[in-house]
Design a protein that fits this description.
- Helix content is 46%, strand content 4%.
- The protein has 350 residues and is mainly alpha-helical.
- The radius of gyration is 20 Å and the shape is globular.
- The relative contact order is 0.16.
- The structure holds protoporphyrin IX containing FE and 2-acetamido-2-deoxy-beta-D-glucopyranose (NAG) (2 copies).
- One 2-acetamido-2-deoxy-beta-D-glucopyranose binds next to loops.
- Pfam families: peroxidase.
- Belongs to the peroxidase family. Classical plant (class III) peroxidase subfamily. Belongs to the peroxidase family. Ascorbate peroxidase subfamily.
- Its cofactor is Ca(2+); heme b.
- It catalyses: 2 a phenolic donor + H2O2 = 2 a phenolic radical donor + 2 H2O.
Length: 350
């Protein structure tokens, strides 16, 4: 029912561009008529009513979408994992004080960035691709396209070039003049999280249980280090009865990987079957006990509610794609801190 309401709203909002809302509870709509500019469109702001728009750059920078797309396409053709890394950057941006490009800031005198927070350290990739996009955009339409919007468009394009669905990205985000290593440390979910923890972590940002399971499907792309899935190997090491619906052959292959190479550098695919294709294989893997992160496998075994969603997505890719698109638009609408400028260089405030 809740999902139906959200879908109805998304349909409504695309035909009624003057309707906007910003509520902590995404099902509690307040209809506000905006007058004047005609620049505002539908918004899915969850924090303080940042108004996002579908067509903002159509006039101010018509080349924006194609510039982003072609850089992403090139980067992913050279390194298929780059799609994963760019998708994850947008997630790590939005979960920390909203989608404000705080994740891109380097440490400078007077500013501690988020790149050294434990969930990000030696793990985030793709900053150079964002730099290239930004520098191209600054020469074509200076100080027009925010770094936070570049992240949102690059995340969508990464999914598309990997074979996943496309959707219209709302734009109009502003970039922050601050970052929070503390918020990045506590706000990003740990791979050891239980299902209730994951649900509440996402709920705080206005994302439902269904959104959480659908967004976890981002793990159909990319890689993780042994340090991220140590807890999956515990049943082998302690001899304790396997839980998590464990697939012992799979766990043994992981243990072998992580013991033959330096554990801190060993990495493996989050989706062992189709690692560079955006598809529903991740959910199929969870049902056979081949989820890589503890938090992935937990979705299929810890909670009947998330299990049912996993089964649905494993059986029907089109349901996964629809829910993923919806959830990405919601995640991309999270707002938080004070985002106030369009950076000229995504790594530093103006
Ligand atoms: C549900 C909670 C989530 C947890 C606990 C989680 C945790 C992780 C961890 C631990 C890694 C591996 C990092 C490493 O070992 O270096 C990872 C990688 C990744 N995550 Fe998540 N994640 C979650 C949700 C998401 C979401 C919502 C997305 C995007 C929609 C996402 C996209 C990715 C991608 C694409 C990678 C691979 C990145 C690469 O290869 O560069 N994750 N995640
Ligand atoms: C909707 O939000 C308004 C304002 O925040 C609040 O007063 C009202 O009780 C909410 N209604 C529902 C059904 O949650
Ligand atoms: C997850 O749990 C394992 C085993 O208890 C631990 O070694 C590891 O450091 C934890 N990882 C994180 C990211 O908390």
């Amino acid at each position: 029912m809740k999902k139906l309401l959200i879908n109805m709203f998304l349909v409504l909002s695309s035909v009624m561009p003057l309707l906007s809302f910003s509520e902590a509870n995404p099902t509690n709509f307040s209809e506000t008529c905006e007058d004047g500019s005609g620049e505002t469109g539908s918004s899915f702001g969850i924090g303080f009513g940042l108004v996002l728009d579908f067509g903002l750059y159509r006039n101010s920078c018509p080349e924006a979408e194609s510039i982003v797309y072609s850089w992403v396409e090139t980067a992913v053709s050279q390194d298929p994992r780059m799609a994963a890394s760019l998708l994850r950057l947008h997630f790590h941006d939005c979960f920390v004080n909203g989608c404000d490009a705080s994740v891109l800031l380097d440490d400078t005198e007077g500013l501690v960035g988020e790149k050294t927070a434990p969930p990000n350290l030696n793990s985030l990739r793709g900053f150079e691709v964002i730099d290239s996009i930004k520098s191209d955009l600054e020469s074509v339409c200076p100080e027009t396209v925010s770094c936070a919007d570049i992240l949102a468009m690059a995340a969508r394009d990464s999914v598309v070039v990997s074979g996943g669905p496309s959707w219209e990205v709302e734009v109009g985000r502003k970039d922050s003049r601050t970052a929070s290593k503390q918020a990045a440390t506590t706000g990003l979910p740990s791979p050891n999280s239980t299902v209730p923890t994951l649900i509440s972590n996402f709920q705080k940002l206005g994302l439902s249980q269904t959104d959480m399971v659908a967004l976890s499907g981002g793990h159909t792309l990319g890689k993780a280090r042994c340090t991220s899935f140590t807890a999956r190997l515990l049943p082998l090491q302690t001899g304790e009865p396997a839980n998590h619906g464990d697939n012992l052959d799979f766990l043994e292959s992981l243990q072998q990987l992580c013991s033959t190479v330096d554990r801190s550098v060993a990495i493996t695919q989050l989706d062992l079957v189709t690692p560079s294709t955006f598809d529903n294989q991740y959910y199929v893997n969870l049902l056979s006990g081949e989820g890589l992160l503890p938090s992935d496998q937990a979705l299929a075994v810890q909670d009947p509610g998330t299990r049912a969603i996993v089964e649905t997505y494993a059986a029907d890719q089109s349901v996964f794609f629809e829910d993923f698109k919806t959830a990405m638009v919601k995640m991309g609408g999270i707002t938080g801190g004070s985002n106030s400028e369009i950076r000229r260089n995504c790594r530093m405030i103006n």
